[in-house]
């Protein structure tokens, strides 16, 4: 039986990116950043990688543009993005026979095709799974092979066909290790209640440390319910706290600016209120040598090691107290942790294993079906 | 080559309904009403029909519940309905080999599977197609077989694989022919700018005829942008017009109430502002013998015959003038038109042809592929 591999180790891999942001992203876009990092590393290893992504993406892989421009930046803006999932899946289907494995980052949108597929389709889930509308979804799709980005993420849907937890890798060359501890606390993330910038401000004030906030302000007008909630949160919970000294809003940062911002901080504050499935900024801070002070939610206890790469606490007050202990953390240990656990290499190793197993399982299924058909033909 | 038909005329058919409303619908839900009518007629003709629909549906077909309860009525309400498309497609896939043809009413959500499918999947489109986000979608999916519900509907996407226009059929037994002309004008539809109830009120007032409006008021609070727009429209454009006499809001009507409401009207006003793809209420009014006065948009000139089953006009003023001519319309001719063009039988005849052609085309494709494989095997 042939399984059509290019060579035992060299695979023909399709990476499917969402159409909203380019790969890599201009600024915000954790999923697209991880897809970029993984894709480049797989190309470097000699795999034949095809990246289905927006046309303004940049990659060493073969790029199939799914939309000319990433939808978050397209003008005029489309009033509804839903049809684009179908467009991408349609494009993939046209050449699916040319891949050994398809790696979908399209949330659950590829699940029906994964079930139908004549090639293995593995999906990495990038979002939270504890939402009511996902219960019937995961009750139906117990067969499609899934990858979680933390063990915490998969907890709400334990009966799925989990293949592995693969932590995100980041391009370590873009994060400069800074051995000396800075003088301010850093916050980087969306202005959204779940990210807890209000908590960060209170912690910094109580601990008498300056706080720098790297974030885009919520847009004043939007039809999107989440965006409106973020605006209300900003106006009611955050703006009043910004009065007074010690707190600086520096806008969005990317590239070298982000490297500087994280590397020169004494610590990153990560006081989230939601079960964040991974939290890429924690890995980015560690790569700069900067420890992370976080509330114990979601992936936090998997990404951080308490008292080694930061402090994990249950309450705001405990995090205030932890600020006084930042000096106990070895910044070189933080960098080492990022290198050992969150490198492109470690991530790609893990995905290569996932791909190999998916191909093997698929082949076994196909072989079984063929055998069944032959048996039935014999009986008939 | 076998194509697995149950018999030359008896087909194994899957009908795929959206998960929002039961089949048939409690009240509002044109798509679900048509699916119900078609399904029952196909069962009556001896086909083996499987209906994928919400669990609170009622059908003579085999019912596969896609959700326990229709999503519009489920409590607590799910915050996002998108995952349910995938759930339905996943369920269909599990038994797709047992159908000769799959008839999808799931908008474009089944397109990737239609491309992948080992069975023909025909999609009837129930919505408007002139939206910007649909351009890239239909540019990609020129291959999947489609059915339009009016010729007007398909105009924005002329290059798709159109199989037929099939007008909606209605269960004529539920609409009583009333030979005598009533004394009021009727409006039935959503309170939404595109349905033009404000125009209807002005027409009735100018023509000095009483108007009865059968509609549910927009909900006061909603996160949905369309629902909010409807509320603003109601408060700003409609409510001021309701002051004064001659206009009566009677709430939602269904079943016998709807039959009475339509049958006892002098005419139905249909002053739409949007390209309505079919407009089921026009056929329902005709079935009661009630002519329709409509603005010339979308499917109107296909469903109505000017001066025969109503009046088709370009402006509000022209419709006011048309009210004076209602007496010229033969109500028996209206009923006859509904029987000849919008019966379950006519609709099912058309779909049987569509199914037969889809099965034939699919078989030809499969045969061609098998032949190609054999040729290649010979060459190898």
Summarize the entry for a quick read.
Two copies of one chain form a homodimer. With 380 residues, chain A is of the alpha/beta class.
What can you see in these coordinates?
The structure is a homodimer of 380-residue chains. Chain A has helices spanning 30-44, 83-94, 111-116, 134-140, 151-154, 197-206, 225-242, 255-263, 280-287, 300-303, 316-323, 331-341, 344-379; strands at residues 12-16, 48-53, 62-65, 101-104, 121-124, 145-148, 161-165, 184-188, 211-214, 247-249, 265-270, 292-295, 310-313. Helix content of chain A is 39%, strand content 15%. Chain A is globular. In chain A, helix 6 runs parallel beside helix 7. In chain A, helix 4 (134-140) links the parallel strand 5 (121-124) and strand 6 (145-148). Chain A is an alpha/beta fold and 380 residues long. Chain A has a seven-stranded parallel sheet. Chain A has a six-stranded parallel sheet with strand order 10-9-8-11-12-13, with helices on both faces. The model of chain A has no long low-confidence stretch (mean pLDDT 93). Chain A is built from 13 helices and 13 strands. The two termini of chain A are 24 Å apart.
